[in-house]
Amino acid sequence: MAAxxxxxxxxxxxxGPPGGSASTCKFMGCFxxxxxxxQCSGNANDCTSRGFxxxxxxxxxxxxxxxxxxxxxxxxxxxICEKCEGPTSEPPATPTPPTAPPPPEYPTTTSTSTGxxxxxxxxxxxxxxxxxxxxxxxxxxxxxxxxxxxxxQVETARETVRNATKIGxxxxxxxxxxxxxxQEYSVRAEDDRHAAVTFAKxxxxxxxxxxxxxxxxxxxxxxxxxxxxxxxxxxxxxKNADQNRTYYKKMLIDxxxxxxxxxxxxxxxxxxxxxxxxxxxxxxxxxxxxxILDNRRATIDQIDAHQENVRARVAEVKDDMESAFMSxxxxxxxxxxxxxxxxxxxxxxx
Length: 350
Prior knowledge:
Elements: E1 14-15, E2 24-31, H1 45-48, E3 53-58, E4 78-85, E5 108-109, E6 119-120, H2 140-284, H3 290-327, H4 342-346
């Protein structure tokens, strides 16, 4: 659509009556455009026939209320439709588009005989001071038409004034609304900025809490890993200590066996000493009474017999105890069975 080479002055929306109601309304569109943007024919029926209500009228869509696709209406207006929920106010009357008043026209005279083009009426001339002047008679029909035309121009001018008043009221209402919006949204901006700062603080504190929790988690994981490894080390040491305990028990048993063998050898040595002393005494007393010598020999034989008897009884007990130990053990035989002795009584190898 081509632009108007000499567009009319921009005009804001012509709103309905101020005050309004508590209803919630939704913009539904603008109607009355004949697609060339010059001859507009919007009226209330364009809205009511679609089930909408009238919000206001436009001569030129300077604020892109209708989407920016409408140019200046050279005649007529655009109607703005809305759909409201709840009570609605009386729809505004369809205004007459503001137009500049035409220049005044004067009555014209035409020739009644020839019917030629009317000419401008010649102003009346003043009569000379010497007497009354003659006046040209005015055409009654033309004068009445001129009066009607003048009255029509007055009505047009009044309508223009009414439209200008409405436009001024609309501008005042828009200014009041803009001031109210400025106050409201300035307060909202302050509140939103305060909320943003508060949320930023909460975010920073939350991040710190998360970092502390992460550090605690890392410490717990590290402690768990260290404790697990140390538990394995301690269990290994305990197992080695148990093996050492078994080894040293076996060594103690072997040591007790060696000690018992030494005691046995000591006893035999003592017997040999006694026997040597006896033999020495017999040798010294060879010249003595043979009966005494025989008596000594008999005594020695008794002692020997007694020692052999003791050794036999001890060997019997030893063999029985070792056999019982091997029978009651799963991993014992003649090669790894300890010797008998006091350690059996004391329970060192239980």
